[in-house]
Amino acid sequence: MPRTKKKITAQNKKPESGRNANGMGSLRQITRKGKEYWEGRYSVKDQLTGKNIQRSVYGKTKAEASKNLSKVLLTIDEGTYVAPSKQTLGEWLDIWLDTYITPSVKPYTLDSYTSACKNHIKPSLGAVKLSTLSALQIQQFYNRVLLRDKKLSPKTIKNIHGILHRALAQAVRIGNLHHNPADACDLPKIYKKDITPLEQDDVEKFLKAIQGTPFECIYQVTLFTGMRQGEVLGLTWDCVDFEKNTLYINKQLQKSQKVGGRTSLLLLKTASPG
What we know:
Elements: E1 7-9, E2 25-32, E3 35-45, E4 52-59, H1 62-78, H2 89-101, H3 107-125, H4 135-149, H5 154-173, H6 200-210, H7 216-225, H8 229-233, E5 240-241, E6 246-247, E7 251-255, E8 263-267
Antiparallel strand pairs: 1-2, 2-3, 3-4, 5-6, 7-8
Helix pairs in contact: 2-3, 3-4
């Protein structure tokens, strides 16, 4: 004789929390493929259609299923419920790069983000479900994969962390995650290298060595202004004020990180587009 299904209504343990009536759940014992387990069912409003839909959580025992159901009902109470999804971190990174990063950053930055996702984050964490990604998994990724195995510098790890954190923060903002698991991660300490400026004798030797070379002017500007390479190469004649003996830094030359990538003259973040 087949086992009779039992149905037990789950009680609301915190009526003062103001639970939405649609969130009330129920428990039942079911048998599938010869295995018996418990199912907790609850209804929740679909954010797109506004209609109530039925979802389930499971457990090997009644107590386990009841515990899992109570956790879900609590998130509905608190307004932090996130619908279960099979979307992986790798799939989300692809969407994030295409939808939120490509239209808003410079080509060089996009290449950096894409490279970090493709070469570092996705090979190790890409197959993990976005909804189950934990701070521990991310921390172990930093410690074992990036620091120990790949021997990346703390500064590079910090950059990768910044990219992953930004992607997960966007997932939180649109409701795909409760919280950002990267918030709880510790990064390896960055030790700044001591900078040893050239002595006067060395400066004179350098100036003598570059005399008559095609890039003498560029070397001199770099030496005496401390400008970055992209800023020096981004100087145009409209940046030079001979009357005031002044250089205006408002753009920089950037090259795509891709092999054979093009160079672009881009406005600095602090510069007005005119």
